[in-house]
Amino acid sequence: MEAGGGAARPEPPSGEGARLEQSQMQLDGPVVLNRSAELESSDAMDIDATPAQALKQTVPPPTQSPAATLTDTVVQVQKQLKRKRASNGPVIAPAEKEALADGCRLELQGLFEYYKEVSGHKMQIDGGGNLSTNAMIGCLLEESNLGLSKLVDEAFEKLKGTEGVSVASVRSSVLLIGQRMMYGQSSPDADVLEDESELSLWCWEVRDLKVLPVRTRGFLSARRTARKKIHERITALHSATLSALESTGAEGQVNELRKVSMKLSKALNLEGIRSMVERVTQKNNIQR
């Protein structure tokens, strides 16, 4: 899965020294760790994603979604600031700042809740059958939010007794065929292989879905795309709305809110993400 431009492509890690080399954070897409240069992005999806709905000009009733409330609030504050700028009045009022912050907080809460629906799926290996060791490890790591050490211990416990499997071999396979993604908020001090902060939304994924059983690939691809879109929306909310709240002066705040409107319109809101996932899932079911 390709996750943002300019992602580093280090050689497959070996030993503890790989951690620092693998910790570079990407600002324009989910963080991708320990990516192998030799593997192709065969699991990337070509999804038709329409922009978020145009900003409405009226305040929605309370029954509308938090995402719609936020965009409407942005529009209303923009209008207020334009009038204040024309009259050389005070900048954005505390009540308007609170409305923007509340709208952002509510939408983030919805995105974090939906993320739980499209992550954490546990695949059963049922003794492995005809699966290779790497395939079994891939099934066990896919969508796990555990840190590396806990993931290795959990996988080894389930594969213990399999010929050629040891803690060291499981760790090596996890780092070879897997990558750890961050779909939430980054922390500069976090250990990118062991951190389990809930706000970071960590998620292990196999580099190439061909490692996993064919019947699971379409289902997992749709969930990966949903997580990527969630990350894009979270990034837009933080970079856009928070910058507008921190700006000083009516002129600067008007310009920042204009940028907010543009960024939010380019990133699907929660309703749009749900709709996209439903379309992709239906398409995958038809193609089976």
Describe this structure in words.
The protein is mainly α and 288 residues long. Among the domains are: 66-115 and 230-287; 124-211, Arc Repressor Mutant, subunit A (Orthogonal Bundle). Helix content is 52%, strand content 4%. It contains 9 helices and 3 strands. It has helices at 18-21, 66-86, 94-117, 133-141, 148-159, 167-177, 214-246, 250-266, 270-287; strands at residues 31-32, 178-182, 202-206. The chain has a 3-stranded antiparallel β-sheet with strand order 1-2-3. Helix 2 (66-86) packs antiparallel against helix 3 (94-117), helix 3 runs antiparallel to helix 7 and helix 4 (133-141) crosses helix 6. One of its GO terms (biological process) is nucleosome assembly. One of its GO terms (cellular component) is CAF-1 complex. Residues 1-28 are annotated as: Disordered.
Q: Would you kindly provide a brief summary of this structure?
A:
With 288 residues, the chain is mainly α.
